[in-house]
Amino acid sequence: MNINGTVLGELIALFALIMGVVCYCVGRRKTHTPILAGLLGMLLTLIPPLGLIYLAVLVLKKDISLTAAVSTEGA
Where are the transmembrane segments (predicted)? Predict the structure, then answer.
């Protein structure tokens, strides 16, 4: 089975978008900068093992506490 280069590029771009959204959703609970977490996940997905490793690190990271987030924003 031959895979066209265009189709492969589209699949990689689709996977990068999906991983960016997933990393953003996980990053909302785990980091103070979820947009940066999503963008970094999307960029690292261009090399698929790095994107999956980054997502695993995000999932295993402890959640940020809401009281700490509120107290740092008020200062």
Answer: 6-27, 39-60
